[in-house]
Design brief:
By secondary structure, the chain is α/β, with parallel strands linked by helices. It has 3 domains: 2-103 and 317-490, DD-peptidase/beta-lactamase superfamily (Beta-lactamase, 3-Layer(aba) Sandwich); 107-170 and 274-313, D-Ala-D-Ala carboxypeptidase C, peptidase S13 (D-tyrosyl-trna(Tyr) Deacylase, Chain: A, 3-Layer(bba) Sandwich), CATH 3.50.80.20; 195-270, no CATH class. It has 11 helices and 22 strands. A hairpin with a 5-residue loop joins strand 2 and strand 3. Helix 2 (39-54) packs antiparallel against helix 11 (471-486), helix 3 (89-100) packs across helix 8 (351-366) and helix 6 packs parallel to helix 10. The longest helix has 19 residues, at 2-20.
């Protein structure tokens, strides 16, 4: 069984994307020849030389281990806690696969306590139960609310309750840099995540300078009122920009200027006031469907003895994990983090119980030594997260050999030169590396799997904590070190 498992995983690492992407990549890249690295001694020497030549005033931790033989090939500061950035998603992914199972789905539900519908009127209250689904869209909610019409419900005699109690009301992770929260990659993590809690629209200049630009919205989103004060300037204007602000009345204000021309500017707005946005959205949907509400649209928790009217289920977890790791999606990571906390502790999902759940799942099911490990947000956005290369290696080692979920985990990692966050890196060794990247200010990390010149599968972890503005140099070092691993030959007698 071990041999079959090893051959399966090796074949997956080398061939999965050759098959899946064969039509897309017909032309073969010009091969680059690298000198072979013979034996552990030479491997250590080359990696040490790369580090000494490329790092100054930075902390680096590196761990390389054979997934075939189980021996350690290189170790440097493997017990030093460092900020992992987005490689932390490796912890979130494996914990979710282990605890929730690859086929788990988020469910957003319409429930009622009514016993009957008379003359098209629901004789009771309607509950909209939000589960923290990170992939829920406005279109999904439109389809869900249409289930009222399919059951000939034209009015609600009682109230419409929005149940957002699956997660707590602390939407931003511990230690998140405040300026990040203005961007969609750090949008709020709440029980209600609709279109990633990020709205996109375009601003198109007028053909006549001095006149207002035009805001162009998309039917994919529900928008609060937009107050537009953007003025069109002459075509030669170079110093124009637009600014977005939101106020307490949930109005999006956009002002500034843009040069006359034929090109529109794309703008993204992070939904900050989640409850008011939800209330306005569902009022609008009920109005669009001509469903009258005799009571109020408000917030409340659904009890356990309600009847189901309709439900929307997300794609299975294995596909969410794929998006999370390939694209380094912080919203999916944060939602899974809180969902694990909710289900593990049977309390509303929070950053605190998410941290507890992920740590305990990895410790009890994957045998990870969690001493000193600090997992605060599931995504790696917080610079206060801490992990060691040894802890990261334990997760990678377990994930590789855990047959029940190894395929889902490994196949979700970005592939060098092919897709995800490694699409434009290491193209000269394309498909030989599957790894999760990590980048925040002053931090670069890379962790995953590669194969040697003899097709031996290795797991590796590289974490660098250094100076701001040096990310490009740190990534270049990661690429060089990983490339060195692909040149490694265990048999020194083959020289």
């Amino acid at each position: 069984m071990k041999l079959v498992h090893y051959l399966f995983l090796l074949g997956m690492i080398l061939l999965l994307n050759n098959i899946a992407l064969g039509k897309r990549y017909r032309s073969k890249p010009v091969p680059i020849t690298f000198s072979t690295v013979y034996g552990i001694s030479q491997l250590n020497s080359e990696l040490n030389q790369l580090i000494s030549a490329n790092l100054a005033n930075a902390d680096i931790s590196v761990y390389v281990k054979s997934m075939k033989y189980g021996d350690m090939l290189y170790a440097r500061n493997i017990h030093q806690p460092l900020t992992p950035a987005s490689t932390l998603k490796i912890f979130t992914a494996e914990a979710a696969l282990l605890y929730l199972s690859p086929e788990y789905r988020f469910s957003t539900q319409l429930l009622t306590d009514a016993k009957s519908v008379k003359n098209g009127i629901l004789q009771g209250n309607l509950y909209i139960v939000l589960s923290g689904d990170p992939t829920l869209t406005y279109y999904d909610l439109v389809d869900l609310m249409l289930s009222l019409k399919t059951q000939q419900i034209r009015a609600v005699a009682g109230n419409v309750y929005i149940d957002n109690t699956a997660y707590d009301q602390r939407f931003y992770g511990p230690g998140w840099v405040w300026k990040d929260t203005n961007y969609c990659y750090a949008a709020p993590i709440s029980a209600s995540i609709i279109n990633h809690n990020c709205l996109s629209f375009k601003v198109t200049p007028s053909k006549i300078p001095g006149r207002a630009a035009q805001v162009v919205t998309s039917p994919k989103y529900f928008y609060p009122p937009i107050r537009n004060s953007v003025i069109t300037k002459t075509k030669k204007t170079r110093s124009c920009s637009v600014r977005l602000t939101g106020d307490t009345s949930s109005i999006i204000s956009i002002d500034g200027c843009m040069p006359r021309g034929k090109y529109a500017w794309g703008v993204s707005y992070v939904v900050a006031d989640i409850p008011e946005y939800n209330r306005a959205l569902f009022k609008n949907l009920l109005n669009r469907l001509s469903v009258n509400v005799y009571g109020n649209v408000t917030f409340g928790s659904a009890s356990n003895n309600l009847s189901l009217i309709g439900a929307h289920n997300s794609k299975p977890l294995r596909l969410l994990i794929n998006d999370m790791l390939k694209k380094s999606d912080n919203i999916i990571a944060g939602a899974l983090f809180k969902k694990l906390g909710q289900l593990y502790t049977r309390e509303p999902g929070s950053w605190e119980n998410g941290s507890f759940a992920v740590s305990q799942i990895l410790a009890k099911r994957a045998g990870v030594n969690i001493t000193g490990m600090r997992v605060l947000d599931g995504s790696g956005l917080s610079p206060d997260n801490l992990a060691t290369s040894a802890q990261m290696m334990q997760v990678l080692d377990f994930a590789f050999h855990h047959y029940a979920t190894s395929y889902e985990f490994i196949s979700a990692l970005p592939i060098a030169g092919v897709d995800g966050t490694l699409k434009h890196r290491m193209g000269y060794i394309a498909r030989k590396v599957r790894a999760k990247t990590g980048t925040i200010s002053g931090v670069a990390s890379l962790a995953g799997y590669t194969v040697t010149a003899e097709k031996e599968p290795l797991a590796f972890v590289i974490m660098i904590n250094g100076s701001k503005g040096m990310g490009w140099r740190y990534k270049a070092l990661e690429d060089k070190m990983t490339t060195t691993l692909t040149r490694y030959v265990r048999n020194t007698n083959s020289r």
